[in-house]
Amino acid sequence: MTIAEAPPVVAAAADAAIRWHPGASFRLDQTMFPLMRGTADPSFAAHSSGFWMAFTTASGPVTLRLSGGGLGADSFVDAQAWGPGAEDAVAGVPRLLGAQDDWSAFDDPAFHATLPRLVTESRRRNLTLRLPSTGRVVDSLVPTILEQKVTTLEARRGYRYLMYRHGTPAPGKAPAGLLVPPTARQWLAVPSWEWHKAGVGPQRSATVMRALQSAVALERLAELDSAQAGAKLQTIPGIGIWTAAEVVQRTHGCADSISVGDYHLAAYVGYALTGRKTDDAGMIELLEPWRGQRQRLVRMLYLSGFRKPTFGPRMTVQDHRGH
């Protein structure tokens, strides 16, 4: 991750602040990384002064700065927030950073003994990992829909375009260019030609519009467990198992939901666990012994440094913005 060379000056006094103690070793970068839509995500900024993020709470927009971490039980994270949503944001910091993420079942000796060596070695080296939980369904759902059936490059390019056009400047002493993602109302006001200029086809833009008609109900899904939330998301036409899994991994810190239908994941898991490529059905079968902890296992595979062979066809990057 690129760290900016000249971090912004931190305001002398934030609108709200807390110091959170994880009670164990903790790394901010490992926890925050899954929430970012690439290192150029306009709603995030990584500086030597900490991680900055902008979003909207029930009380309004907020800029949140997180810094700290460390080894051992004395580690801590300082959170400072500016804007109308400052109090809401700092109150949600423990959940955001994985305070409710319980690894005890995964680390139980009997369960641990069943794991592949690649996974156990990765876990030994990554005891600082927490699965984050934002509780913000709309903020996770929209960019995930944009990622349906296209390359990551296309999806992130389109998301950045829409953010620059329809996001709003982050409040307070935020880094230059930090943006608050559009609210559901603002997303619904994006005209059809803007979706086209962003390279987002009518099927994906229609899914966004259809889903956000029930934005209030969507945000209430954060109060349900991840399985219920994922099932309810899939009742919306255009949202399937892959999209639901990608959302609850971020909003609920789900330890089990795996992204069935992902272009790369099944082959990656197959090569990592057996040395052979597999499909979605094969991946589900391979991961079945660890049901309940499958997403944790996948995260450990990613953090292990394992890379699958690179031969074979790749998805073609499409660009229809000029048509």
Structure keywords:
323 residues; 17 helices; globular; disordered N terminus
Percent strand equals 5-15%
Structural class: alpha+beta
| Arithmetic mean of pLDDT | 92
Helix content: 40-55%
Strand order of the largest sheet: 1-5-4-3-2
Report low-confidence residues grouped into runs of 5 or more.
Answer: 1-12
Strands, count: 7
Overall radius of gyration: 20 Å
The general outline is globular
Q: What is the H/E order?
A: EHEEEEHHHHHHHEEHHHHHHHHH
- Give the biggest beta sheet: 5 strands, antiparallel
Kindly, what is the distance between the CA atoms of the first and last residues, rounded to a whole number of angstroms?
34 Å
Number of helices: 17
Secondary structure blueprint with pairings:
Elements: E1 16-20, H1 28-32, E2 44-47, E3 50-57, E4 60-69, E5 76-82, H2 86-91, H3 93-96, H4 104-107, H5 109-112, H6 117-125, H7 137-146, H8 152-166, E6 168-169, E7 179-180, H9 184-188, H10 192-197, H11 202-212, H12 215-220, H13 226-233, H14 241-251, H15 265-274, H16 280-287, H17 294-303
Antiparallel strand pairs: 1-5, 2-3, 3-4, 4-5, 6-7
Molecular structure report:
The chain is built from 17 helices and seven strands. The protein starts with 15 loop residues before the first strand and ends in a 20-residue tail after the last helix. The chain has helices at residues 28-32, 86-91, 93-96, 104-107, 109-112, 117-125, 137-146, 152-166, 184-188, 192-197, 202-212, 215-220, 226-233, 241-251, 265-274, 280-287, 294-303; strands spanning 16-20, 44-47, 50-57, 60-69, 76-82, 168-169, 179-180. The longest helix is centred in the middle third of the chain and has 15 residues, at 152-166. Helix content is 41%, strand content 12%. Helix 7 packs antiparallel against helix 14 (241-251) and helix 15 (265-274) crosses helix 16 (280-287). The protein is an alpha+beta fold and 323 residues long.
